[in-house]
Amino acid sequence: MDLRLQRRLAAEILKCGMNRVWFDPTALDEISSAATKDDVRELVEKGVIKRKPVKGVCRVRINYRKMQRRKGRRRGHGSRKGKKTARLSRKEAWMIRIRALRRKLRELRDSGAIDRRTYRILYRKAKGGEFRSVSHLESYIEQLR
Question: Cα separation of 104 and 8, whole Å?
């Protein structure tokens, strides 16, 4: 039984796609006899032809994965695409590092562990990129003593 015409007419009436049109399987003969939009409208009013609900996309798996990533899972070498600097730009990495170094230097100066002159020298060295990290800075200070 070819019901393409009825399906198309019903889709226009119900304002949806042809795939979302539902025909009552017990009333297929009645549907096939419908030739005009008015006939199809009557069938829609009867409830023989209906519009199927929109299918949603289930986000359970995505949300679970996101939760895992927040915990630090699924972030290993095998999951990475792109360069290291694509994930964290050189500038961002520099900003994080220099702020940590300057915070440590300020802390050492205020506590009296280093004098103002040493602070200035180390500050300039940090700005020049001499220290990789705070621990590198600390080991450098240890060597000075």
Answer: 72
